[in-house]
Write a structure and sequence with these properties.
Mean pLDDT of chain B: 87
Number of strands of chain A: 10
Helix content of chain B: over 70%
Strand order of the largest sheet of chain A: 6-7-8-3-9-10
Largest sheet of chain B: none
Oligomer: heterodimer
Mean pLDDT of chain A: 87
Structural class of chain B: mainly alpha
Radius of gyration of chain A: 19 Å
Strand content of chain B: under 5%
Helix content of chain A: 25-40%
Distance between the termini of chain A: 29 Å
CATH class of chain A: Alpha Beta
Structural class of chain A: alpha/beta
Distance between the termini of chain B: 17 Å
Low-confidence stretches of chain B: none
Largest interface: A-B, 29 and 25 residues
Shape of chain B: elongated
Number of helices of chain A: 9
Order of helices and strands of chain A: EEEHEEHEHHHEHEHEEHH
């Protein structure tokens, strides 16, 4: 579904990508893991036709990003690092705008359905400027789903969110994959990749240094030893219990 | 994708028009400075200025209208800059839409916003004693010139909107444009100016546009002056459009 071969990109003298290869199977969640500045966003920007690669090739849904950018844009949806929503419009207007730009019939109904699906119906008529970070992110992801693009890029979808909002976003991503959407996710949070991804690739200094399922990655280290450790609740468990949410 | 150009532009225009109607303060602040200039010049300096006209406010209004447009277009650069910063620009660019629709929506919004500001300024001028016996045709001529002038300056404003690094940089470019009318026939006749200043004032675009609008308001024959005014507006429009579009193509490449 997504195929990246020997991708290279430099900004002036700085080599950001030094030959990146990976493939993402249809309907799976693929996590690109890496620290800040590892080049995750650069990969996503090239795949979403916003940036041209210096060398190598990339294809999405069978279309080459350099040769057929318009076809690629019809196949994808990008949710960038910062929620790309219009603060002055209401949530409903944001959704209807994207539906109109995707040339779909009945934008109002599409907007209402998505508000319902993302538990935003009550907030739908309010300006987005009044939304919390989690609501904004949910709206952002909802906007990405309009027109059912087969591939979705989520660039650090939970950076800057509180734990509850993070779990809400995770839930939304899992539902996406369950419906057959291919998801490429970048993250710097290891637990996020662990929770969501079918396959995980680690991008480090412009190269993919490992790529595999969680089980495969775990086998790279010596086999587990049996140790007895007192089970302490994590701070996340405490926080979520106190504010009354279950960890899903 | 060009088959969707009009639909996409309309959808995006609806979006940015909502930005204006939900923040009418941008229209108000646009009109404050030109109105202050008008009050200052009519009620403070006006008595001492020999404009060779019965009503100084009538003499002054065309220049004030151009100042209104020059200060109004800085909001176009500002709104475009905010879109670039917020990531919504990238969202639009990664969607299958007509690529130039994003810019056209901003430009048409600028036109609407400036026409509202201009109407506000004209109403204030009427209260201050501006009178014109101009007929429909002359008013349409004035409107046409102002629309051309607004479009030309708006495309100019698109350039800093796309390239600015900071919000101040995005709007500061309009200051020289606001002051250009002072070096023209907008406030005083050019005859009293010393040689080089007069040469500049008489040959810069604002003077020809101001004179053409003034002649239309006072029902004087516009002569060949109006063609010079139109030529300046169209020339500026074409050059600004070409630069803005090439900047845009570089930004989205």
């Amino acid at each position: 579904m997504i195929r990246v071969q020997a991708l290279e990109k430099s900004y002036k003298d700085l080599k950001v990508l030094r030959g990146v290869d990976f493939e993402v199977a249809r309907g799976s969640i693929f996590a690109l893991l890496g620290s800040n500045g590892a080049g995750k966003t650069t990969v996503v920007r090239i795949l979403s036709t916003l940036l041209k690669a210096d060398a190598g090739s990339a294809g999405v849904n069978g279309f080459d990003v350099a040769a057929q950018p318009a076809r690629v844009r019809e196949s994808i949806s990008l949710t960038g690092q910062f929620a790309a929503v219009d603060e002055i419009l209401t949530g409903r207007e944001n959704l209807a705008l994207v539906a109109r730009l995707r040339h779909l019939k009945d934008p109002g109904k599409i907007a209402d359905d998505l508000l319902d699906r993302f538990s935003l119906t009550d907030a739908g008529g309010r300006k987005v400027a009044t939304y919390s970070g989690g609501m904004r992110r949910r709206l952002d992801i909802a906007m990405s789903l309009i027109g059912d693009p087969p591939v979705i890029f989520l660039d650090e979808p939970t950076t800057g969110l509180d734990p509850e909002a993070r779990i809400e976003v995770w839930q939304a991503v899992r539902e996406l994959a369950a419906r057959g959407t291919t998801v490429l996710l970048t993250t710097q949070y290891l637990d996020e990749a662990e929770q969501l991804a079918d396959r995980i690739a680690i991008l480090h200094e412009g190269r993919i240094i490992v790529n595999g399922t969680l089980t495969e990655l775990k086998q790279l280290l010596p086999p587990a030893k049996v140790e007895y450790v007192e089970k302490q609740p994590t701070l996340e468990d405490v926080f979520l219990t106190l504010v009354g949410k279950d960890k899903r | 994708m060009t088959r969707h150009f009009f639909g996409d532009t309309t959808a995006l225009l609806g979006r940015s028009l909502r930005h204006i109607t939900r923040s009418m303060d941008t229209i108000i602040t646009t009109t404050v400075m030109p109105i202050m200039f008008m009050l200052l010049f009519v009620y403070v300096f006006g008595g001492a200025i020999q404009s060779g006209s019965d009503s100084y406010v009538t003499y002054l209004l065309p220049g004030i209208l151009l100042i209104t447009v020059a200060s109004g277009i800085s909001y176009t650069a500002y709104r475009l800059f905010l879109d670039m910063q917020s990531g919504i620009f990238e969202r639009f660019q990664s969607m299958p839409i007509a690529r130039s629709a994003v810019l056209w929506a901003h430009v048409l919004t600028s036109l609407v916003a400036n026409l509202i500001s201009l109407a506000v300024v004209v109403v204030v001028a009427l209260i201050m004693g501006f009178r014109s016996s101009a007929g429909i045709g002359a008013w349409l001529g004035v409107l046409g010139l102002l629309v051309l002038f607004t479009l030309a300056l708006t495309w100019l404003a698109v350039i800093p909107g796309l390239t600015a690094k900071t919000i101040d940089g995005a709007s500061a470019f309009s200051y020289p444009l606001v002051f250009l009318p002072f070096l023209s026939s907008a406030f005083v006749p050019t005859d009293t100016m010393p040689g080089p200043v007069r040469a500049f004032a008489e040959n810069q675009p604002v003077t020809s546009i101001v004179n053409a609008i003034r002649d239309l308001f006072t029902q004087q024959p516009v002569g060949s002056g109006i063609w010079v005014a139109i030529a300046w507006c169209v020339g500026l429009l074409v050059v600004a459009y070409a630069f803005a579009m090439s900047t845009y193509r570089r930004r989205i490449a």
